[in-house]
Design goal:
Layout lengths: L1 H39 L8 H14 L6 H19 L3 E5 L5 H10 L4 E5 L2 H10 L4 E8 L3 E2 L1 H7 L5 E9 L3 E4 L10 E4 L1 H6 L1 H7 L4 E4 L3 H8 L5 E5 L1 H7 L2 E4 L9 E8 L9 E8 L6 H11 L4 E8 L7 E8 L5 H13 L2 E9 L4
Parallel strand pairs: 1-2, 1-3, 7-8, 7-9
Antiparallel strand pairs: 3-4, 3-11, 5-11, 6-9, 6-10, 12-14, 12-15, 13-14
Helix pairs in contact: 1-3, 2-3, 9-10, 11-12
Length: 360
Amino acid sequence: MSDKLEALRQRIDQLDSDVLRLISERASCAKEVARAKLADDASAVFYRPEREAQVLRRIMELNDGPLDDEEMARLFREIMSACLALEQPVKVAYLGPEGTFTQQAALKHFGESAVSLPMAAIDEVFREVEAGAVNYGVVPVENSTEGVVNHTLDTFMDSSINICGEVVLRIHHHLLVSENTRRDKVSRVYSHPQSFAQCRKWLDAHFPHAERVPVASNAEAAKLVKTEWHSAAIAGDMAAKLYGLDRVTEKIEDRPDNSTRFLIIGSQDVPMSGDDKTSLVVAMRNQPGALHDLLEPFHRHQIDMTRLETRPSRSGVWNYVFFIDFKGHYAEPHVAAMLEEVRLRAADLRVLGSYPKGVM
């Protein structure tokens, strides 16, 4: 048995050497790509969302296990992130502070080698991208339990920023305490209002009399708990690790499929990846049948609409705009034909972006 174990260890050592050599070879190739791009264009774009999506999809299709597809894609994303950093580090602004789910989404999408910068508000993320201080921004747009993030949608109405990608993050909330907390005396729970809403039933059952104190972020909740002996926080893994908190109870969200969708915003147009989504904002004239006129071309061209949201318009009282997501890329002929029909019927239409559907 020991001889077999030793042989397996030697085989693993050889495989590790092979993996190391191939990763180094890939990194060298990435540096050559950077030189070739700069030779053609001094302002070349290094991060290509459609190319990364295609690579990750291919890896998942080729994967035969025993690691599952998403775990394998996650490993390759980190390799790609490190290689991209050799070409040009990607700067990403996200809705902070550190330890939030938005930071977790940014790292899931861009990898640990990206330079991530926390911003105090969604507006600031947009401003950093518009000013060119960062390459991309990450903002939350909707939660499967609590619905859309209206502030994100409203900000698009005053911005020329494009949507370059999306990432969906499974949200797990934990009840966290510090080493100084007297667990049998918890009388106050801190968290973001949306987290309270997503854990309402669990709190009602286990801490019905505890004061629920809403704060700006789950990371702030975790930070506050460090200084108090009678409080707990609802937050995720990153906040727990950042502030050194203990998990009293894990995964206290009321719905096990609780997920949040985040948008990647930037200044570039993204070519087709083969599996894309498009987002629009449309203002219709206030007249009978306006909604039918908006939706009818989608049906006739057999385009799958995945989301329709209504927000008050900035142009007048009781006027509304529609935010629409659908499957497809604006450069596809049947999508372009549909968009032209809607444009003729609408008071205003803006394509916020076509981008790869989230891979992981």
